[in-house]
Task: structure prediction
Amino acid sequence: MTQKPTMDQVSGPDVAAQPEVESRRKPGLILQLKNQRNWLGSICGILALIVLPQVYDQFFGSSSAFQLHRISLIGIFILAALAQNILTGYAAQPSLGNAAFFGVSAYILTWLSSDLGQPYWIGILVAVLVSALLGVLVGSPALRISGAHLAVATLGLVTTVGTLLNYWDTTAGRQNYDLSNLPDFLNDDHTLYYFIFAIVVCLLFLSYHLLHSRVGRAWIAIRDNETAAEAFGINLTKYKLQAFVISAAMTGLAGALYATWATTASSSMSSADQTIAFLAMIVVGGLGSLTGSVLGAIFVGFLPVLLGQLPSPMLIGTFQLQISTLITGIYGLLLLLVLIFFPSGLSSLGARAGNWLQRNCSGEEQHG
Amino acid sequence: ACNGGNPNSGPSPAANVPGVSNDTITIGAVLDTTGPLKVICAPILAGDQLYFDKINAAGGINGRKVKLVQVSDDGNSTKTKGAVRQLFEQNNAFALFQVCGSGNANVASSYTNAKQIPFVDPIGGGSKFNDAQGKALPWVWMTQPNYGDEGHVIGYYLTNKQHAKTVGLLYENDVLGLQQKTTLGESLQKNGAQLSTSVGYNATQTDFTAAVQTMKAAHPDIIVLNGLPGPTAKFIAAATSQGYHPPMGYLANYPMADNSWAKVLGPAGEDTYVSGYTSTAAPIGQEYLKATSADTSFSAYKFYGYINAKIFSDALMKAGKDLTRDSLRNALDHDFSNYDTGFGPSLTWTPDKHGGVSDFMFLQIKKAQLTQVSDFIKAAQVWP
Amino acid sequence: MAEVMQAGPLLEIQHLSVRFGGLTAINELDLQIAEGEIFALVGPNGAGKTTVLNCISGLIKPAAGSIRFAGNELLSLQAHQRASLGIGRTFQQLQLFNSMTVLDNLLTARHTQLHAGILSGILPFGRSKREDASTRQQAMDTLVLLGLESYARRNTGSLPFGVQKLIGVARALVLHPRLLLLDEPAAGVPPQEVQELAARLRSWQNELGTTLLLIEHNMRLVQAVADRICVLDYGRKLAEGAPGIVLSNPAVLEAYLGRGATKKVQQEGITHAES
Amino acid sequence: MIAFLQVVIAGLVTGSLYGLLTLGIVLIYRTTGVLNFAYGAIAALCACFMYILLTVARLNFWLALLLTLIFAPLLGIVLERGFARPVLHAPIFTKAIATLALALVLETIIQAIWPQLAEVQHFSTPFEGQAIRLGGLYISAIDIVILVVTAALMLGLNLFLLRTRLGIAMRAMADSIPATRLMGASVGRIFMLVWAMSSFLAAICGILLAGQSNLINVQFMDPILLPAFIGAVLGGLDSLPGSLIGGILVGLVSNLLAYLLAGHTIGSLDIGNPAIRDSVIFAGFVIVLLIRPQGLRGRALLRRV
Amino acid sequence: MLKVEQLHVGYGSLEVLHGISFEVPQGAIVAILGSNGAGKTTLMRALSGLIPIKAGNIELMSKPLRRLAAERRLREGLALVPEGRELFGSLTVRENLLMGAYTRHSRIEIEQDIERILTRFPRLKTRLQAHAASLSGGEGQMLAIGRALMSHPRLLLLDEPSHGLAPIIVETVFEVIEQLNREEGLTIVLVEQNAHQALDVAHTAYILQSGSIVLNGEATVLTANSAVQELYMGG
Ligand SMILES: Nc1ncnc2c1ncn2[C@@H]1O[C@H](COP(=O)(O)OP(=O)(O)OP(=O)(O)O)[C@@H](O)[C@H]1O
Ligand SMILES: Nc1ncnc2c1ncn2[C@@H]1O[C@H](COP(=O)(O)OP(=O)(O)OP(=O)(O)O)[C@@H](O)[C@H]1O
Ligand SMILES: CC(C)C[C@H](N)C(=O)O
Ligand SMILES: [Mg+2]
Ligand SMILES: [Mg+2]
Result:
């Protein structure tokens, strides 16, 4: 897999093309600039997240709770996309198995909480732990299987798990699986929103550091060149497995939160569509890019919801369009266009902007 | 606060009631027009639209036009709640009319019940709405029959009218299929016959050879097909290509009661029985046929949408000019006693009973057309 | 890492055989390299030189034989474990981490010397960050040593081939390996820099005590630095010994060096370069 | 015994269909490194096209078949030009997801222009109802057609890829597009040809599948896509005979299991249940892959350093 | 034969070649020398059409190449042995050679050419059915050269052909270069680190530095130039 430079990796080619100029400069300056930019961006982002509910209340009035609830969904998908990106974009495992953790975790939470009457927090904890454990189970064979083989095998896993969850529903005589007795604050759309995004921000922050640490470098090394990674002492087994476990646990958390958000669990959470959506998120956003996970989650997770808002039937002149039946196609077309115009993901937009900024910054410096 | 709990509070009651203005009533529907149930839901939506257009053209209901807002949940029950919330919190709908899929309808009902929003016609053959009756789900009214009742009637019909002794069952491997398996078995046993073999299938299954051979080995007189049009048709095709035909042929349950299915089967489907509960013989059926004469083929799902839209419109009508959720509930609970649905069976709702119709008739494929071959049989009569 | 000081060779290869399908790439090879030695492995294309290196660093499993390094049997260890014994290497076809910057390539190479795991990695402070800071310094030092500091923050993949070659060396060197395996470090490097390279190899060996196993087709470099040479042909040892003697061996001239070298030997005579 | 043989034959036929489906998938995968998830939609579109020719234009079956087989490669060329070419140099995942998006678009287009195909329709062929009887064994004519066509296409395509100049160039393209261009091969034209061929194969597969079950609708290919992919991976993904063998294996095993497990239980577990059966098949698939990660007939990926 | 005028080439916003002009007469061997990063490979890529040029002209036998894709340039008789070999790893050695002859049609001639290449590089003969990915560095380089020769080019561009080759094979390669030039009139542009040998076979040479030509002239003259000796021949 070849990798276009992402936001985290770019450096100004113009500057570096003239080594003499570059070498006179303090090493680390670019990094500092970049870090400052990242910091500024993150703080702006967090502030925006904090004030969003207020803005919504002003703007949407009585429907603001529902609109926020909808936005919370993006947070859940960001987690799932982040998990997929760590596994696929960084550690280069083309696994399509994540929806299995997504579904299983939701079922475990619902089972513990609704059927066994356990507290919600225990449910979440167990769900995430079980997902991590499943991550080991899936990851271990995946160490022997690679490439498209792994993709198809894990896709098979997802549908098999979906079938089994459905079988469980069937034998238990369930038509749907309600997640009842949530803690009160999770029944409130505002607090649910803050809860989910607090988790998202935390995990993005921690992931950022992890990916820039020894572990993250080991993953990227495996992605770039397994042989060299091994020759430099990186234990492929260990690091691939770690990526699987972290990704599974994170997807599990996303699954549990999704069940909380939807107040129900369904075997369709572990379906080919769902798992491919996770992959689509990081492809659209940008493989191996944190910003990419966020942008991809918004595009893939939220765009269909927005399209669902289109009035149906829609009148264009005298021509009556049944939008509702065309939504899938419109979505597919938009997806296709993004992939054609941003083959390395929407995050490359950010990188382009960043490059431009950096060029201008460094230009100033040379004059000064 | 603006729940319309008190209809007499102001001079212009409509202003207080969500989704009801002086000239429109907004109602919401959750129909999967984008996911796996698209095949069923898209024609239902078209049928709904057809009827409401007709009503609106004639001046609406009590002077108000009906505006149907439909949201798709992709057939995925985890998205149903969001869809329903959109209808009531963003689009400000008055009542919920149709949610497709039993599980999805359950999710929707937990929202509408808590908010005391009337929910008419959950599209699903699950038994929950019948079993729970009006007491547990005071805000849900079911129009269609359930698979359990149907199983009883089919068992009765096969034994008493067709004199079958052994019956095979192919069922879709979900809660509904299992429910029919149980009730069909009970009913056969009571009538001195038996369910000699039953084979479940997955919705995505393509190869039915093993199922055919398993059935064949059990020598049933007739095979009951429970599920959806595609897979059941594949089963018949597979059996035919292996030279197998049960002595008395097949009987399919109501989702197959559509001429399109008969056409799909081709010659292999001749003489197959189908259980059904909607007939186009009555005036509304004729009216529908006229309205859709341009369609290439008759769609039972579209007809389903049409007649249910009629039931719902009648209810709105009966709820009166001062429309509130309570007045609608009142009308639904009290003004539907032996109500003539216009497609055959009659419908009775009381405050304690919100179940749908439970009368079935049987059709037979003759020259690729479904032809009615029995009268309506009431489930309550064969299985008290 | 167990510091077993012991007499005898640092690296000892015995009866090593490697087969790929019907092809015997290495045939019953014996090699011994003493600590601190610069040992050159030369021979015709396809003789099996790279394969020997791959066996040592664990990328290929030999059919038979043993490889002992500082008292450890390497063949019973996995590739990544061998690196932590202090074996660093470069690759004939570069194999850099192309999406990383040059600096990150070097940081990654110090993997075995660092310890931060996931738990300290996710934190914005603490051990992981301390380790990183000091490693960064070491990496910069190594780059300076090779005159590559101006490339530190460039993406590796788009650099000129010759520069990438040197980065490969820097990446191996940043480990401070006990045994450094170099696969054709001078290929694609311009002649004037080859001399510089030779001087550097010598000085590492002097200052750091690094043992070097060098594969090279550039005889200038080999002559300039090697203490001993082994010529491999069809997976067998053709000759072994001091450069002057081996490189004037007629069999070596015929199989490997060709007429040009023969001429040169006759004209100039091969001298062992001073360090 | 007869029943058992009947199940085996059906397994062979279904497996061949899987194998036939994967021919086109493996062809594109081997030449361009794209896992083409739109393949099912392309097959469906071609079969639907033929259905329309048969029912709306009321053409004779053979004429409709001929027109469809002309239409399919044209469709392939249009898709290549309009869709595949722009993402030719994109990373592999991007291409895979793009094919998925394409599938969504194609399905919507079919439904928009031929709304009747949203529902299941009858697809009739001259072979319908015809069968050979061997003792108690029924072998329907369409099954024989499927077996023969699959074998012929597999052999022909394999020879083409291994022996012909164009075939070698197609494989070369998968290794390096720039190098292929340096050899004077027009990558664009080859790419177009690959798509044309693969659409042609998709059309044949779609028509045979529709002909076998006499059913068709927009999504009728979807359910067989995953088992076909599994068969291809089992066979090794880079070998055409391999993917046929893999496909047949999947078809055979799932049919036999369905037959043998029907009606049996272990304790309270109904092992005849399709959910359990599918899980068993999947477990078997994973075990085979663990033993042979490159698939039954695949070559292990070689990366020299 | 080849005429390059004011060629500007780069990657993205980075310009690597800043207006290069030179001519290669029919039947000449031209060497291009320069240190790492001078832009030699970039020049080769631009000539063969692998990367677009930003400004300037390239003419092959008075035919402008600028708008021709790489595959068309090969058909015009221009072949490249690329840096880093760019073999078809999953194809066998033989299939790689056949790919080299993609534009040719006579099976007999192709077989004869394969035979000729195998006698020049006997090492390849033993590896004929091996996948190119399994070759050793030098074997791969031999194959890359052989593959380019299979197209019977009129102008051959060689980007460090001696890279990774044993001295005896380097000799062979330079012999082949001279021989093809002498006997078949093949025009050759040669990029080499091995300046000694390059200047030995070349008629003229250009020295590239930071994307500009800083020196050019007869190979023998340049060989004698002390600056050249110091900078590019290792003193
Ligand atoms: N994985 C493999 N599969 C098949 N053959 C291989 C493999 N690896 C190496 N070979 C073969 O083994 C022989 C030795 O290869 P090796 O790379 O060790 O040669 P080398 O001495 O390094 O040559 P060079 O100087 O050209 O790099 C070659 O003929 C090569 O083709
Ligand atoms: N793919 C690329 N993307 C961006 N920049 C590149 C790319 N390839 C080369 N460059 C840049 O172009 C410049 C010239 O590189 P080029 O490879 O042409 O040098 P060269 O003369 O061939 O060097 P060498 O002798 O090391 O092969 C360098 O600054 C390099 O970083
Ligand atoms: C309309 C019917 C086919 C719906 C079906 N009975 C279900 O519950 O999903
Ligand atoms: Mg080598
Ligand atoms: Mg170069």
Remarks:
- Chain E has one domain: 2-232.
- The CA atoms of residues 207 and 215 of chain E lie 5 Å apart.
